[in-house]
Amino acid sequence: MQNANVVGHGIDIVDVEELRNLLNTGDHFTDRCFTVLELKAVGDGPNRVQRLAARFAAKEAVLKALGIGWGPGVAWTDVEIQTLPSGAPRVLLGGGAALASAALGIHTWLVSLSHTTGAAAASVIAIGTGDSSADPAPAAKM
């Protein structure tokens, strides 16, 4: 059995109306922040913006758990929030976020999403074999 330590925790809250305004600025924001699979998962229904806001909060929470931020070497789409057949969310990493996760020895992500008409929140816990005091930033910038 793998060693299991809590390597990081992140939480974020997004104002749904602010995200709606950003989405209304055009496709550039949407394409820069969300993958095709994320957009497909949220659909076009009445809760679309709330669901996107929850995913946006989860992306921010993942980077907080990793101890890194957006910038050189890390794109918004490096963190993808997928929906399992059960409806549960799952974190999938690529690019700089995946490098930072590997540097910390993270092997499992626990994620919880919630939203109302006004706010969306996400909490993530990173589980791994690593040490939470390790610095993932150099790996993310490779």
CATH class: Alpha Beta
Shape: globular
CATH H-level superfamily: 4'-phosphopantetheinyl transferase domain
The string of secondary-structure elements, in order, is EHHHHEEHEEH
- DSSP summary, beta strand count: 5
Class inferred from helices and paired strands: alpha+beta
Low-confidence stretches: none
Average pLDDT value? 90
What's the architecture in CATH terms?
Alpha-Beta Complex
CATH topology: Ribosomal Protein L22, Chain A
**Beta strand %:** 25-35%
Determine the N-to-C terminus distance.
31 Å
The oligomeric state of the chains shown is single chain
Could you estimate the helical fraction of the residues in percent? 25-40%
Question: Could you walk me through the main structural features you see in this protein, from its secondary elements to its overall organization?
Answer:
- With 142 residues, this protein is an alpha+beta fold.
- The chain has a single domain, classed as Ribosomal Protein L22, Chain A.
- The protein contains 6 helices and 5 strands.
- It has a 3-stranded antiparallel sheet. It has a two-stranded antiparallel sheet with strand order 2-3.
- Helix 1 crosses helix 4.
- The N and C termini lie far apart (31 Å).
